[in-house]
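Ticket #4471: structure output looks truncated?

Reporter: J.K.
Steps to reproduce: submitted the chain below (494 residues) through the standard prediction queue, then opened the result file.
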Amino acid sequence: MTATPTLSTSSDPEKNPAVISEARSPSPNVIHPPLDRTAETRLKRKLDLRILPVLWVLYLVNFVDRANIGNAKIQGMEKELDLYGQRFNIAVWVFNLGYLVAGVPLIIAFKKYGPKSLAVSMFCWGITVIGCGLVKNFQGLVACRLLEGMAEAPYIPGAAYLIGAYYKKDEYLTRYVFFCTAGIIAGAFNGFLSSLIAKMDGTGGYGAWRWIFIIEGIITIVVSLGSFFVIPPFPEDCTFLAPEEKELLLARTRADGGDVTNDDLSVRRVLHDLKDWKIWTAVLMHLGVTENANSIANFQPTILKGLGYTATQAQIHTIPVYLVGAAFSVIFAYLSEYLRQRYFFYLLGWAVLATGLIVEIAQPNAAGVRYMGMFFMASGAYLAMPISIVWIAINVGKGYKRSIALGAIINFGTAGAFVSSNVFLKREEPKFHTGFSTGLGLACMGATAASVMYVGCMLENKKRDERRKELPAVLDEGMVVDLGEKHPDFRYSL
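Returned output as attached by the reporter:
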C-alpha cells in the first residue's frame, strides 16, 4: 500500500473534520482508493470468529477462578479455615493487592513478548487455584490468593489491548463488551457449577469447598495448555489471514488514527505516559463501578443466603442476576457504539447501578425487592465497566501507551475491590449497610470523573481543530508518522 492520506470532510466525531481516509505513506500526491467495504465486512466476520471466541473462553475461566471464593465460603470454607471477623475479606482483598502490584509490569511484558504470554500466566494461576483448595489454614489461603492475583493481572488488560489492535474505534466497544459477557456468564456458571460440585462433599476426605477450587484449577491448567497454540498474535504477526486480508487489516488500523509502529520502551517513557490526566480520570471512572461489581461477585451468595435461601438455593439464584446483566450490557453497549457516545451511556450505567444500591441501602422487608436490587446493580455496573476501559483505550493512541493505560485503569481501577472487601463487614451480614453506602459514594465519584473526561476531551478537540487550520490540507505523513494521539488529525472520542 503506497498511498498518501487524503483529507475529507466528515462528521465522524471520532476524528477531525479533516480525516485521514487511507493508509499513510511519505509518497506525496498519490491517493489510494477507498477501502473495499465488502472485503472489510468479510474480514470483520473472520476476525470475530477467530479472535473473540478464544479470548471469551479464557475470560470465562479467568472469572470463575477469581470469583469462586465467594461460592466456596458458603460451602464450608469459612468454618473449616476459621475465617472469623474480617478474615474472609482479607482473603478477597489480598487478591487485588497482587493484581495491583503486578498489573502494569506484566502488561508491559505482554506487549513485549506477545499474547502467548497470557497462556503462561493462566497456567500459573491455575496452580494457585488448586493451592487454595489444599491449604490448611487462613495464612495459606492468603498466600495463594496473593499469587493468584499477580498471575491473573495481565489477562484482562492484555485481552483488551489485543481486541483493540484488530478493530477500529467504532467497532471496539461491542467486541469488548461481548468479551466481558464471559465474566458475567461466569458468575452465573460459577453458581451452577458450585452447586454441582457441592455434591462431592466428603469425597476423598475433602469438603465441597475444596473441590470447588481443585476442579476449577485443573480445568484452568488444561485450558491454558491448549490456549498456547490458539491465542492470536498481534496483527502484524498474524498468520491466519490471507496476504490480501492482512494488508487490508493493517490499512484499516492505520487509517483509524493514533497508529504507532516504531515504539520504544523505557522507564522514563512509562513514567511520562502515566502523567496523562486522562488515564487517572479513567481509573476513577473504573474504580467507581468496579468496586460494586466486585461486591456482587464476592458477596452476592452471602447476601442471598441471608435472605433465607439455603446455600444451594443462593448459588442458583445468582444465575439470573448475571444473565440479565449480560443482556443489558450488550444491548446498550451496541447503542453506545452505534451512536458513538460513551459518556451518556456510562451515565446510564451509573444511574441503573445507583438505583440498585439505593434499594439495598433502604433495606426493604420484602426479600424479593432486595433481590431485584441485585439485578439493577449488576446491569449498571456491567455496562459502565467496559465503557470506562474502551473509552480510555481509544483516546491514547496505540502502541505501548495503550498497554500502559489499560494496565493502569484495570489494575489501579480494580483497587475498588480493596474497598469492597473491607466495607462489607461481617457484623453487618447480610444487610451490609456500610458496604452498599460506600458503593453508592464511589459510583457517584465515577460519574463525576466521567464528566471531567467528557468536558476535557471536548475542549481539547476544539483546540486541535483550531491548530489544524494552520497546517496544510494534505500532510506529509513522513513528518508525522508514529505520533499516536499527537497526530494533527487525531481527535478524542466523546
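Triage note (M.O.): checked the attachment and the full C-alpha cell line is present. The chain is about 70% helix and 0% strand.
Status: closed, working as intended.
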